[in-house]
């Protein structure tokens, strides 16, 4: 199969940036729904809802659901979704529930340096000295928020540290999933790859749900009609739109460049968290945000 061609210049970069915006809107909505749902049930609903949308889109666009590709390519995409959606998103929702949108946005700045490090190690993408400096700045931002004594939000110290650890684990899982699939992306259809990854994520979640002793509680949360509208909205932005744009960014440009542009979601989440969720603003949080975004700028403009 011939690889898909880009439609316009900088298509990958624009899709990666769009993914950051879509994800920021979704995070605020996920934060609201996450108050009434556990991470597993939230992720289960998101994946199931998005698979339905991807199937409808594939039928409308007459995209093949089973293209003529090697069997191991199917396996790689499923594995990438298992790690990057089934594991990573569940960890992310658990972190978001503990930290709130503002803190979570800063911790998630670890995403781009982790992708860059793994891309340099396993994909041969080069890291430059200024990129290493950016990585250090982002790590420093995470350390600052973990020790912010002026934050008056109701987050307990135990939840803060657990939320940071869960958030870092989520970003590492996502970075691993990118390294797994990136070499295969140029040869596969974008919509198909997004659909198969989501199926892989759902498969892992379904297994976890089946063996969980509280599965009836999870099922009851997903059947709550009061949550259907916010769940559908958050899944549409965070699954359908963000997944597709994110995959396009990874497909049409370097993983390190796409990851850095994805990271612009940080500033959107931070601002929306203050405006919509009324989250607290402290000097430490602002310093961490500036430091983290400075690291992203260094990474972005020195990537290549």
Task: Describe the structure concisely for a colleague.
With 304 residues, the protein is mainly alpha-helical. It has helices spanning 11-33, 39-60, 71-107, 111-122, 129-146, 157-181, 190-210, 215-222, 228-252, 255-262, 265-275, 283-302.
Write a structural description.
- The protein is mainly α.
- It has one domain.
- It is built from twelve helices and no strands.
- It has helices spanning 11-33, 39-60, 71-107, 111-122, 129-146, 157-181, 190-210, 215-222, 228-252, 255-262, 265-275, 283-302.
- Helix 1 (11-33) packs across helix 3 (71-107), helix 2 packs across helix 8 (215-222) and helix 3 (71-107) packs antiparallel against helix 12.
- It is globular and about 50 Å long.
Counting DSSP E segments of at least 2 residues, the number of strands comes to: 0
Briefly note the structural class of the backbone.
mainly alpha
List SSEs in N-to-C order: HHHHHHHHHHHH
Number of helices: 12
**Helicity level:** over 70%
Point out poorly predicted stretches.
Answer: none
Q: How many domain modules? A: 1
Radius of gyration, in angstroms, nearest whole number: 18 Å
Strand fraction equals under 5%
Keywords summarizing the entry:
12 helices; mainly alpha; 304 residues; 0% strand
Itemize the secondary structure elements and their pairings.
Layout: H1 11-33, H2 39-60, H3 71-107, H4 111-122, H5 129-146, H6 157-181, H7 190-210, H8 215-222, H9 228-252, H10 255-262, H11 265-275, H12 283-302
Helix pairs in contact: 1-3, 1-9, 1-10, 1-11, 2-3, 2-7, 2-8, 2-9, 3-6, 3-7, 3-11, 3-12, 4-6, 4-10, 5-12, 7-9, 9-10, 10-12
């Amino acid at each position: 199969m011939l690889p898909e061609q880009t439609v316009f210049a900088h298509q990958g970069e624009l899709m990666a940036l769009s993914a950051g915006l879509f994800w920021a809107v979704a995070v605020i909505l996920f934060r609201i729904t996450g108050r009434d749902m556990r991470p597993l049930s939230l992720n289960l609903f998101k994946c199931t809802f998005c698979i339905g949308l991807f199937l409808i889109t594939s039928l409308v666009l007459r995209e093949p659901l089973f293209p003529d590709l090697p069997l191991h390519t199917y396996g790689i995409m499923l594995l990438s979704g298992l790690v990057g959606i089934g594991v990573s998103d569940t960890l992310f929702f658990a972190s978001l529930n503990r930290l709130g949108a503002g803190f979570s946005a800063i911790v998630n700045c670890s995403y781009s340096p982790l992708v860059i490090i793994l891309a340099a190690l396993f994909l041969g993408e080069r890291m430059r000295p200024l990129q290493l400096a950016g990585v250090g700045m982002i790590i420093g931002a995470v350390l600052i928020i973990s020790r912010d004594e002026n934050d008056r939000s109701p987050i307990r110290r135990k939840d803060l540290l657990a939320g940071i650890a869960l958030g870092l684990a989520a970003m590492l899982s996502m970075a691993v999933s990118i390294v797994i699939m990136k070499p295969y992306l140029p040869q596969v259809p974008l919509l198909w790859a997004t659909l198969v990854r989501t199926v892989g994520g759902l498969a892992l979640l379904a297994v976890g749900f089946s063996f969980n002793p509280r599965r009836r509680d999870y099922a009851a949360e997903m059947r709550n009609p009061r949550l259907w509208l916010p769940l559908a909205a958050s899944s549409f932005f965070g699954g359908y739109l963000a997944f597709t744009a994110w995959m396009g960014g990874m497909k049409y440009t370097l993983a390190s460049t796409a990851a850095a542009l994805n990271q612009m979601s940080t500033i959107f989440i931070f601002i929306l968290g203050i405006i919509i969720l009324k989250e607290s603003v402290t000097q430490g949080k602002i310093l961490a945000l500036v430091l983290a975004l400075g690291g992203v700028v260094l990474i972005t403009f020195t990537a290549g």
